[in-house]
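Researcher: Quick sanity check before group meeting.
Model: Go ahead. Protein one:
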Amino acid sequence: CIKIDVEPTNKQAAGYSLMFNVETVAQGLRYGVTVRDHKTMLKVYPRCFCGPEALEWLTQHALKAFMNKEKVDMGQPVGERLHILSRSAALLLAQRLIETEVFSQVNKTKARNPFSDPSALFRFREDEKAGPVLNTRHAWNCRARPPVLVAADLLQKGILLHLRPSFPNETSQEYQDFMQVAEELQMVDTSVLFRKAETSFFLNLHNALLLHTHYHRKTGCGENLKQLRNKLPKLHQYRIGGQCYCMEDMRHRLLRHKPGARCADPRIHFALSLGSMSCPDVRVYGVDELDEQLNEVAFKFCERHVRIDVSSDRSSSITTTLLLPKVFKWHGKAFGFERKQMLQSVAQYVEDPIIKALLEEGACRIKYPDYDWRKRPAGAPP
């Protein structure tokens, strides 16, 4: 909360303090200002809002708090002193919101007070590194279900939408139900999650946000996602329990902890999808059965992608090459810091005795076939 000390309109009364909840103010401000791209001096500032517009909303918000504190009815006239106090409190409140990193100024201005300068632009923290938040069209004001249930329900509804032969109509009941569950994420309490529940929660949310991103941008069936492979995990976000997460956050900060560090459970790489033909299949992960499900998807992924290529040259010498999916090229250190360790780790997810022996030996020739970046068609399992 943010504490603002003010003087009462009645000079004989004692002073008092107003308390503002940061999350409530930030959420209301997002609906109270217009976030759009601004162009100033031939430079484009994406996803910004103007300072005076924010100050006007904060002034009205502070005025309501003053009137409530001094028991002034909404229909009664408000004196000039109360308006002055409201504007002063709004300036202090805006500064505290910057200090708490709710938003920040993105351009420099000569004005002493940037909130009174129409050319001063600000951007919300959740809009800094990633695109728009997809589940804040309406505020969720009810109590949320346990986070694991919400994430599983959201992904299940997303999968059913993907199984339809065409993009879901935003006015359809199925899509409205999907959006309602997504908005419920605003109020979930992630602090109650233990490690296995957290893994299940964010695995399901990662893939749900993936499907939602494709619905939002209307990705065409068979569209080549190669050019988007680095941008896609940051295109959109979900507000989860007061914080915003994009797929990149869920991958590195929550599932893999630190980038470059060895993954606590490398099987997670068999569960994360970007929606292309070569990506792992999307499914709902439970808490109690998480280990069995991760083993199942690991065996299924390796059975589908790990193969042997036997060829001969002009001298009739036979060459055996092990074909591995590029997930082991990109994230090989998650399975072992050395090449032999990585191959032996992959061997535990392979049932074919010949391939298993080659992997355990760790001395075979390896080739990584081209990755199929085509978007999976609607109507087929995601």
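Researcher: Fine. The other one?
Model: Protein two, sequence then structure:
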Amino acid sequence: GIQKLQAINYLETPVNPKTFARFLRYSPYLDKIIVGDYIGTGDKLCSDTLVEYCLLFDFEKVDFDCALRVFLESFWLPGEAQKIQRIMEAFANRYCSQNSEPFAHPDAAYIFSYSLIMLNTDQHSNQIKTKMTFAQFSKNNRDINHGESLPNEFLEKMYNSIVRQALAIPDRKPGVINTQPLAQHDTQIALYFRPISEPAYNEILLKAKMEPIDFTPVNNSIFDIDLFSIMWAPCISSFGAVYESQEVEENTQNLILEGCMKCANIAAYHNMNDTIDQLIISFLCRASNLTSESFISSTFTSSKKAQKALITMLKLAKLHVNHIKEGWTNILICLIKIYHFELYNFLEKQTEFNNNDDKKVKET
């Protein structure tokens, strides 16, 4: 493959490791398995390319787990132990060259990165029934930092990060990121309709910092449906993550619900019924807490956020009644609980609905 690229003057002759590392890092149509296998090979060109490849990552003041996530997402980690060792040693050297803490030496970062990968397999493999506790994880990493133990607060943060959010690996298909755990790559898991965890959010911020994108202005709407098809799922996930945060301000809540309605309007315009169903099922019903198995009526009546989410869902259902399919099940569950627990009186206090809307909801 390298010879063919040299023949068409795409790569230099002889190969420059720095140039080739950029090619492996940023070319969108490469098989990620081949990338991982190449940079893990032990000959001089591959080793030099691996060093240059790691230099393309900016890990300064980045949490160790977040750095590891972004690094492992850029290629498929090979299965051969020696190749894994070379890659993770290069990663540890790069991280420690930009961060003086918490590791006293790159060897400690290398050992700890291995430990996180093992923890990831332990926590997210269905074949392992008894999961590793924090005490066991802490014991496994005792005295790895040049004879000293890593700070307990740091260990706990790393442990909780991996437990909450599995390490991601890239899919072989160019441009697609598979969010399944390393030990469960063949299991299909939907990412977008789970709440965004803190490590996942930090990973997004780091990627935005490291991978600037050039935009081409387009003065017509020919790509609207394609762009919306890409954006709607992350938007719903973001709506839920921010809205369910305890510290979110009321103005932000209102903006999220307004964005939800606009998202539904765009989806209805393009007849994207699945999008509207997911807005109802994955965000609004969840935010109202009415579909929760542990639903408590007092929690609902005291939560303005839950009430406003329900109001928005009913407004959406009324406006786009012909575009809702699977979402009707969740809507009916909400309405049944409102009737069963006699919660409909709270609608009278809401300003979003007019009197006719209140009457229709109660009658329903």
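Researcher: One line on it for the slide.
Model: Strands lie at 169-170, 177-178.
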